[in-house]
Write a structure and sequence with these properties.
By secondary structure, this protein is α/β, with parallel strands linked by helices. Helix content is 44%, strand content 13%. The chain contains 58 helices and 41 strands. The protein is globular.
């Protein structure tokens, strides 16, 4: 069938008419493509390759025939294109020579100017993301004597944030032609854009940011966008694109690459200047895209000839490399299919060639790894490609090296790769392969390694709509069920920059944030830039191979032979923390895990078949093995120690958990497996390089904890079949248990190193022989060890200790912040677990009595009840939250109410009290702890639904929703029938909108129930991980804030794209919070604005709120986020004062270590904003940032605009909670100074992140100034699970920072004390998408009272927690420690201590339960109460104190008696 020439021309015209829209395609915006059918210019274009017109078919056929003849060499010559020479001459095109002078480059320093040819054409080329090609561009054009070319790398565009490189400025002023490639950075783009008016002739941009693509211009062709016009091609080009794809959205970008290949051929049918100029642009782009010296030279020559109006009807052929191919150092040319490659690689011929060249090949049965490579790097001859393949072979992995453009990674996985899991799945029908799968070209592989990063679907083209095609990638990778690993050299950072500051900025997004959305794991940095070259670090390649082998060998080992280590957490010491984790019942989770492993064929001894075996007994035994006295006695005496404690348990000893009194001690046949390790043995295993560091850090006299009396390192655990359960060693030393975390030059102590090194050491070499490790619960410490903040290197301790061991990290789903460290620094494949059910606080004891009295008072209006109401309020401390003001402003505090009080005053007050009780009883809390893999009960599901829908569901709606959990189908059918009848009548009573809204709500309720019922998948994922399989990803978060996207659990959780913070909803909410905070301050300070507000910026709340805390900072300063064309936030611009209508508030930003490392781009943008704020031409009385900076500058202080402070580089935490935990502190002022000493380090763009300084410079003078001017502190709380009183970090950071500010205040003449600094707490529990929701801003003391009343003092919360065994007892214990911390840094009312003592220590039944479950935890409860009294925090009566002393003495004596048995 033939198609007329009219149709061919019409099709060509489509491309011409759409050409100005190609900028969006070329700037990687895949959303511009549509696969719908449409009619254009009379030609019906269908989304199918079969409907391409005949001329295109013939053209493609000719290309295929030519390709078949040249596929062995991999290089082919394309049919010579033809360009018209009869076009009009543009106003800037010249014949002959050009008279302007130029600056040229010889490929050395861009600032140097070689001899210039005054008759030569001047061309400036800026290489962005491909700065490593700078030398190629220089050398490729040296033979063009009549062209002076000056090439700039991306790091040569600017000399500072705001200053453009003067050499580039001068070059652009002389430029006739400009070419820019892969320029993404916004500041770089703006710098280049500012210079474009100087360019006399064409301006060509290839695959740059959207802002720059609009400046493409050559002759009559340009890519300018009309005002209001949406980016992306019009329907015509969308239709054309659809003919080059499979019809799937994920294939559109790959189809676009095909379009570019035939576009110029289509344009030869089209007369006119516009088509000709577009063709020149396309041909130049194709030369650049194909790369290599010849193509670069021909590109420049083409542009030169066009500029001079020379004949370009015949131009040199583009030297074409296949879009997809495979290569190997032992083979000349390329292979065109993985199967062809692998047949050659496994052949005797390959082995013979290798032997002749002394090339080390991996054995043919080695792990096979699909290695995705940048085609651009292959065709430009980047040496690291062949080096990487060579090193992988030499270290025992067979790479299948497939180069691609970057956009079609998913098509390779889908069409050309398969796996054992996928093959079996196809056979049994659980996996369905796409029709595009090419079985005759595909190979079976064991893992996938991408050196490209970005999303798997779309590659760089998918990067600006992160997550758009995640579902596609997940399905492909789930079907494959093999590890998906990222490993790449850094293309935007030099190796020294990486070694100094870690992986930064856009590079971290490319290699970490975006691939993690697809479920990528174990990212390894393979090297980086050295000058303009990409250099590989061989040791990092060995690390990659080590991790590949770890996963593959795990899978290849039969299940009943696999050796697994399970590591529990045990910090802080001596407070009952062994076998605990945040929100997780570890003993019962361990129980579930071992029984499930037994079902799957793992050898767990007799544990799963012993009816008395339980996780509580395992934890109790491990607690005994962790005691100092037992460790001191050495590994050989541990059996005796445990047996004696079991005997004591049987006799009812209060210091020993009663679970050990069960038959067989409840251990299920578990045996102690312990090692005494000498230092020489550790050095032999660890190697001299790292062991020397340990020797230097830990002298003979100070070897740290975990040593026997003989000085040997003791590593112990319980062996259950092939499973070894152990407790992670402590990090620090006595009196300083977390010392390691806060001194970067330190190393883990010898016993810590020995535990990990001998855990992974094969049994035949004297080790435990673990093939994988499960870190059970949030969180351990290995990921926090000294080393690179991001991008492990040889000197990173987590990298050393984990080695190649697959690390399955069971982590709380609601913490996507700290889990980032576990994933990135600790090579953790995360498996999320759900948060516990939510409970409503309700009212209890005297609070319930008070509510009844208020109701009686309102109905009877009896004055006799007034005194009773007032007395209860005073005893409960409610008069603090709801003060009774009778006259003047001061609250009434007397115990007896005045007889002459006006009734209306008391009536109004009682209404406020009733409202407060309503607020209190509706408070949510986490009820108990979650058990890994356990399906929630119906009561649990009700509690989740109640919290999610804010108690708005009716009983009938609950019943309907609960049907979707799939259990008790018979009962559900009956319920369903009743619901049908009920709804039938309701339909007649509801209008259509209400009915639709109700249906939508019920659909969500059913989805919530269905997803929560899949908690069992938590254990499924652990088993998948132990099989060396792929764990599907999901965003971290909690149900209340983030909705159903975070469910089901059992997923490899990830964070969000840091370049999209703050999100739109977060920006709206942040502004409201900032305004409310300012108003709160104005009301309490007679209308005076605060000069400085201290804000905490934490990774957790930033991720979960989508950047609300960032928005608060911006709003206080008076700035707003600016987005570039793809939606990324690229700058924070100052709002003019005439719009702001108030002064700019100065900010002390306290950054957590995770925020500092994970949001480095935000840190840079904030730092830039503060610098511009100081430079703003504004009066200091309206700009407090400028005011304080000028004062500092006048004192000779450097960097007076520094506002972003955190811990030392690579370190985490304020150390305040550690000091409070040990009790080693003098007074509250000392805690403030501890915080200040740990947070004196300044960060930001001007502190070394540009590679020109040191990131994290200590600036004590600036911090002192900001603290002295701070009048208020803001802390945002992002979830119900982690309230102010639930974890130590809030008082240790925010409370201690407040104290540091108060330390620098003058003494108030009225009170004789230093002026107090207010602390505002923002409880942002709601959904981030609900930008209209009211977010309360309260004083810290008010929030503490709410927290304590709803949780710690609440019998409902208490009973749920102590029923969780040892873990629940520990949760109570650590909240007592936090209460002391808050009393030191804020204020805890006396009634809180009174009732805490009553509820936990003086209640005999509760005390007995706590002591039996966890003796050390109970001892800590009593200890903290006594400490509070001793420090003057609690005014307790003598009888209460005497009872507490007796309880503590009894517990202490018993524990000391036990210790004496082993000394």
């Amino acid at each position: 069938m033939r198609i007329s020439s009219k149709s061919i021309i019409a099709l060509a015209l489509i491309v011409v008419d759409a050409a100005h829209q190609l900028k969006s395609c070329l700037s990687f915006a895949p959303s511009c493509y549509s696969s719908k059918k449409m009619t254009v210019h009379g030609v019906r274009i269908l989304s199918s390759r079969q409907n391409i017109n005949t001329s295109l078919k013939l053209s493609l056929a000719r290309q295929q025939q030519q390709q078949q003849g040249e596929e062995r060499t991999g290089i082919k010559q394309q049919e010579a294109p033809t360009l018209s020479s009869n076009d009009k001459v543009s106003s800037y095109r010249h014949g002959g020579t050009h008279s302007s002078s130029s600056i040229t480059s010889t490929g050395t320093d861009s600032g140097s100017g070689p001899d210039t040819n005054s008759n030569a054409l001047n061309l400036v080329l800026v290489a962005g993301f491909e700065s490593f090609n700078k030398g190629l561009y220089d050398s490729a054009t040296q033979s063009l004597n009549d062209v002076n070319i000056q090439v700039f790398a991306d790091n040569e565009i600017r000399t500072s944030t705001t200053e453009v490189n003067p050499t580039l400025v001068q070059a652009m002023k002389n430029a006739d032609i400009f070419v820019g490639s892969l320029i993404f950075d916004y500041d770089d783009a703006m710098a280049v854009e500012s210079l474009l008016p100087h360019v006399k002739g064409p301006k060509l941009f290839f695959e740059c940011s959207t802002e720059l693509m609009t400046h493409n211009e050559i002759g009559s062709f340009n890519m300018k966008t009309a005002n209001g016009q949406e980016l992306g091609p019009p329907p015509a080009i969308k239709a054309v694109l659809s003919t080059f794809t499979s019809g799937k959205e994920e294939d559109r970008v790959a189809g676009y690459v095909q379009l570019l290949k035939v576009g110029p051929s289509l344009l030869k049918f089209v007369p006119g200047e516009k088509a000709s100029d577009l063709k020149v642009w396309l041909e130049a782009y194709r030369y650049w895209n194909q790369g290599g010296a010849t193509n670069v030279k021909n590109m420049v020559d083409l542009l030169k000839k066009w500029y001079r109006n020379e004949d370009i009807r015949k131009i040199p052929d583009v030297v074409v490399t296949p879009d997809v191919g495979l290569l190997h150092p032992l083979h000349d040319g390329f292979f065109l299919s993985p199967k062809e490659f692998l047949e050659w690689r496994l052949s005797g011929n390959c082995a013979q060639v290798a032997a002749s060249k002394k090339f080390a090949l991996a054995p043919n049965d080695s792990p096979r790894c699909a290695l995705l490579l940048y085609r651009k790097h292959v065709i430009t001859g980047q040496k690291y490609i062949m080096d990487l393949i060579t090193q992988m072979e030499a270290n025992g992995v067979i790479p299948v090296p497939i180069f691609i453009n970057g956009v079609e990674g998913h098509t390779i996985v889908r069409d050309l790769l398969t796996s054992e899991h996928e093959i079996l799945g196809v056979k049994d029908g659980t996996v369905v392969k796409e029709n595009s799968f090419q079985s005759d070209k595909a190979v079976n592989i064991d893992c996938i390694v991408s050196t490209i990063g970005f999303p798997l679907v779309g590659g760089p083209a998918g990067s600006f709509e992160a997550g758009r095609n995640v579902a596609v990638a997940q399905k492909l990778l789930r079907d494959m069920n093999v590890p998906y690993i990222i490993a790449s050299p850094l293309l935007l950072q030099s190796i020294p920059q990486w070694k100094q500051n870690g992986v930064l900025g856009l590079q971290s997004v490319v290699l970490y944030s975006l691939p993690e959305l697809d479920g990528a794991i174990d990212t390894v940095i393979l090297g980086g830039l050295v000058g303009d070259k990409i250099a590989l670090i061989n040791e990092r390649v060995r690390k990659l191979v080590e991790r590949i082998k770890g996963w593959v060998n795990l899978r290849r080992t039969p299940t009943n032979k696999r050796k697994v280590a399970i590591m529990l957490y045990g910090f802080p010491p001596n407070v009952g923390a062994v076998g605990t984790a945040a929100l997780l019942d570890v003993p019962r989770s361990l129980d579930n895990l071992l029984r499930r492993m037994h079902q799957e064929g793992y050898d767990v001894g007799d544990f799963a078949t012993d009816p008395d075996a339980c996780g509580e007994s395992l934890v109790a035994a491990l607690t005994i093995l962790s005691e100092d006295s037992v460790i001191t006695a050495g590994a050989n005496k541990m059996n005796d120690a445990l047996e004696k404690r079991i005997e004591r348990a049987k006799r009812g000893d209060k210091t020993t958990p009663e679970t050990l009194a069960k038959p067989g001690a409840g251990l299920g046949g578990a045996k102690i497996r312990a090692l005494n390790i000498k230092y020489d043995d550790l050095e032999r295993v660890m190697g001299k390089y790292m062991s020397k560091k340990v020797r230097r850090a830990w002298s003979e006299k100070d070897r740290g904890p975990g040593l026997s009396s003989k000085g040997e390192m003791v590593v112990s655990g319980l062996q259950i079949g092939n499973v070894w359960v152990t407790v992670q060693p402590l990090l620090g030393v006595e009196g300083d248990p977390m010392r390691l975390l806060f001194q970067r030059n330190l190393t883990p102590h010898p016993q810590y190193c020995a535990c990990y090194e001998f855990m992974k050491l094969p049994e035949e070499m004297g080790g435990i022989g673990a093939q994988s490790v499960i870190h059970l619960g949030m969180h351990g410490t290995v990921e926090w060890l000294p080393g690179q903040p991001l991008g492990n290197d040889r000197q990173s301790w987590s990298d050393e200790l984990l080695g190649g061991l697959p690390n399955l990290y069971v982590y709380a789903a609601n913490n996507p912040s700290e889990s980032i460290l576990a994933k990135r620094r600790g090579y953790g494949t995360l498996i999320s677990y759900n948060v516990p059910p939510y409970g409503r606080a309700g009212l209890y004891l005297e609070l319930a009595n008070l509510k009844d009295l208020l109701n009686d008072y309102r109905t009877s209006e009896s004055t006799d009840l007034r005194q009773s109401i007032w007395s209860i309020c005073q005893r409960c401390g409610i008069d603090n939250e709801v003060p009774l003001v009778i006259s003047g402003k001061e609250p009434y505090k007397e115990s007896e109410l005045p007889e002459n009080m006006l009734p209306e005053i008391f009536d109004t007050w009682t209404k406020d009290v009733a409202n407060y009780l309503e607020l209190l009883q509706e408070r949510l809390f986490s009820s108990g702890l979650h058990i890994l893999g356990s399906k929630p009960s119906e009561d649990d599901l009700r509690s989740y639904l109640s919290a999610y829908f804010k108690d708005s569901l009716s009983e009938e709606e609950y019943k309907v929703a609960l049907q979707s959990d799939g259990s008790n189908k018979r009962e559900h059918k009956w319920r369903g029938f009743l619901s049908f009848i009920t709804n039938l009548f309701r339909l007649h009573q509801e209008d259509e909108p209400a009915r639709r809204q109700n249906e939508e709500r019920m659909a969500v309720a059913k989805e919530v129930v269905s997803l929560l019922s899949r908690n069992t998948e938590e254990l499924d994922s652990v088993i998948t991980g132990l099989d060396g399989g792929y764990i599907a990803p999901a965003p971290g978060g909690d149900l209340l804030r983030d909705g159903t996207a975070v469910l089901p659990t059992g997923r490899n959780i990830h964070a969000l794209d840091p370049y999209r913070m703050p999100a739109e909803g977060a920006w709206i909410r942040g502004q409201k919070i900032a305004e409310d905070t300012i108003q709160q301050h104005l009301i309490k300070n007679d209308g005076t604005y605060p000069e400085t507000i201290a804000c905490t910026l934490w990774g957790l709340d930033t991720i979960k709120t989508r950047g609300e805390s960032i928005a608060i900072v911006l709003a206080l300063v008076g700035a707003k986020p600016v987005k570039e064309g793809t939606g990324r936030v690229v700058r924070f611009d100052l709002i003019p004062l005439n719009e702001l209508k108030r002064p700019r508030i100065d900010i002390l930003a306290s950054l957590s270590g995770i925020f500092r490392d994970s949001f480095a781009n935000v840190v840079d943008l904030l730092d830039d904003m503060f610098e511009r704020c100081v430079q703003a031409d504004e009066p200091v009385e309206m700009n407090f940032v400028k005011k304080h900076a000028l004062e500092l500058e006048g004192e000779g202080v450097e960097r007076p605009a520094a506002r972003l402070f955190s811990n030392p580089p690579g370190d985490y935490g304020s150390m305040v909670n550690e000091v409070v935990g040990t009790g080693d502190w003098q007074d509250s002022e000392s805690l403030g100074e501890t915080w200040k000493g740990r947070n004196v380090f300044s960060y930001g763009r001007n502190e070394g992140n540009d590679g020109k300084g040191i990131s994290g410079t200590a600036r004590p003078a600036v911090l002192d100034k900001l603290l002295s001017t701070t009048e208020r502190v803001i802390q945002e709380i992002d979830s119900v699970e982690y309230g102010l009183t639930d974890i130590q970090e809030y008082y240790a950071n925010t409370g201690a920072m407040r104290k540091a500010a108060e330390n620098r205040k003058a003494v108030d003449s009225k009170t004789g004390k230093k002026k107090k600094v207010a602390l505002s707490v923002v409880e942002a529990f709601g959904s981030p998408s609900d930008s209209n929701a009211k977010v309360p801003v309260r004083d810290v003391e008010d929030v503490l009272r709410l927290e304590y009343r709803s949780k710690l003092l609440n019998p409902k919360w208490r009973d749920a927690m102590i029923n969780q065994g040892s873990g629940g007892a520990y949760e109570v214990s650590q909240r007592m420690t936090a209460m002391v911390g808050w009393a030191a840094t804020a204020k805890v009312d006396n009634f809180v201590f009174d009732q805490a003592a009553e509820r936990y220590a003086l209640d005999e039944e509760v005390a007995r339960k706590l002591q039996k479950a966890n003796p050390e935890a109970f001892k800590n409860v009593v200890r903290r109460l006594l400490e509070a009294s001793g420090r003057g925090m609690w005014n307790a009566d003598n009888d209460t104190l005497q009872k507490l002393r007796e309880l503590y003495s009894d517990a202490d004596d018993l524990i000391e008696q036990v210790d004496s048995l082993y000394n």
